[in-house]
Amino acid sequence: MALDLDEQARISLSRACKSAGIAVVALFFSAGVSLSENPALAAPAVVESSSVREDCASSSLAGGIPDASSSLEVTDESLVESAWELVNDFYLDARHHKWSPDLWLAQKEKVFQRPFQNRKAAYSAIREMLATLDDPFTRFLTPDEFSQTSKYDITGVGLNIGEVPDENGQIQLRVLGIVLQSPAELAGIQQGDEILSVDGNSVAGKSAFAVSSEIQGRKGTPVSVEVRRSQCGDVQSYVLYRQQDLRSPVFYRLERSDVANERRGYVRLKEFNALTKRDLVTALMRLQASGASSFVLDLRDNLGGLVQEGIEVAKLFLDDGETVIYTTRRNNASLQSIVAKGQPFLRAPLVVLVNNRTASASEIMAAALHDNCRAVLAGSRTFGKGLIQSVFEFNDGSGVILTVGKYMTPAHRDIDGNGLEPDFWRMPARLYGI
């Protein structure tokens, strides 16, 4: 699903890219699940692949989202041109501050000096251009590499759902993309369809994240999704069988604390996926019922995952109105904030364990709890990834992961390249009320 760090940015990216025949695949995710053991080469934690379909003859989809025409022939030259334009329009040089339109235009002129003999040569040209950015999180993916990212589909049925305003400004939940060969695509759901209900329950007033979580479930189980066909206006119902089977990232146990007659709850979060918040709430409830009066939340070796899930988990511990995160992008001079709403689920004393492999979504959560004086950090300095990437898919199935923004902590700290310094280098002997 599209992540809600900056909805207007997501919509503008969708419009600009789809009108050029490029599908916005995933927006504003953390580099969490590593393609290698090096956190600097971490892969996007959640990617929703978009296939372009157009059964209703029209130049654009309802809700103001232009459709990427699947009939356009993808030439080697147009592919390289599209990659260049993505960087030109959206790239944020958050680390080196050396990027400029003039230098980037010079790169384009350089690679176009020689003809592209085949698709392999076009891919090499794209890699050559991206390499000049010196950004470890921006990279090109071949169709085979891109297809591997579909395993991070959050819904389990291949739907990428986003919040899109209609012509009257009312928010609708629409299908922004579809995973290739997924249950949703095979059933006939199309890009641009409006989601009306899930298992007979209306989605009115719900966020895209909440509805995507409702669709997700155990592998092999059915879910009914009712949609209104864009342009045509027909309402259709589909029964989809979930093909993804996410494993719970939550492990918990009741421990004896260093203080006599006190017990604490230990909870380890291995990653942030669609099950994290639900299973964490269950773990906390069971530990409280067993007598836990303080808690340890272990984020060590958690490279991240779904950013929105990390934000939602942080909100479980924060008071109404407290800031979770600030975000910014290239053409946005001001910081935009995400705040907690409602009362916290847990107020008990809390320690968060971190290390040098606590990265991205994990750092967002740790910083939110620390800067709001909700928890203390113990362990070692975190990895230090404060950049935001988007994933774009080209019509030939290849794609680009591109840095488009960055985030700052509630205390306005820029942790990118710096990480979070813990309050304690070892577990404090006693957790006092905060």
Strands, helices and their partners?
Blueprint: H1 7-18, E1 23-29, E2 31-34, E3 42-44, H2 76-90, H3 101-111, H4 119-131, E4 139-141, H5 143-147, E5 159-165, E6 171-178, H6 183-187, E7 194-198, E8 201-202, H7 208-215, E9 222-228, E10 235-241, E11 250-256, E12 263-269, H8 276-289, E13 292-298, H9 307-315, E14 323-329, E15 336-339, E16 350-354, H10 361-371, E17 376-379, E18 387-393, E19 399-408
Parallel strand pairs: 12-13, 13-16, 16-17
Antiparallel strand pairs: 1-18, 2-3, 4-19, 5-6, 7-8, 7-9, 9-10, 11-12, 14-15, 14-19, 18-19
Helix pairs in contact: 2-3, 2-4, 9-10
Write up this protein:
Keywords: Hydrolase, Protease, Serine protease. It comes from Selaginella moellendorffii (Spikemoss). One of its GO terms (molecular function) is serine-type endopeptidase activity. Belongs to the peptidase S41A family. Residues 157-205 form the PDZ domain. The chain is α+β, with helices and mostly antiparallel strands. It folds into three domains: 7-150, Transcription Regulator spoIIAA, CATH 3.30.750; 157-241, Roll (Pdz3 Domain), CATH 2.30.42.10; 250-386, 2-enoyl-CoA Hydratase, Chain A, domain 1 (Alpha-Beta Complex), CATH 3.90.226.10. The protein has helices spanning 7-18, 76-90, 101-111, 119-131, 143-147, 183-187, 208-215, 276-289, 307-315, 361-371, and strands at residues 23-29, 31-34, 42-44, 139-141, 159-165, 171-178, 194-198, 201-202, 222-228, 235-241, 250-256, 263-269, 292-298, 323-329, 336-339, 350-354, 376-379, 387-393, 399-408. Strands 1, 4, 14, 15, 18 and 19 form a six-stranded antiparallel sheet that branches. Strand 9 (222-228) and strand 10 (235-241) form a beta hairpin. Helix 2 runs parallel beside helix 4 (119-131). The chain is globular, with a radius of gyration of 22 Å. The chain starts with 6 loop residues before the first helix and ends in a 26-residue tail after the last strand. Residues 1-16 and 25-72 have low confidence and may be disordered.
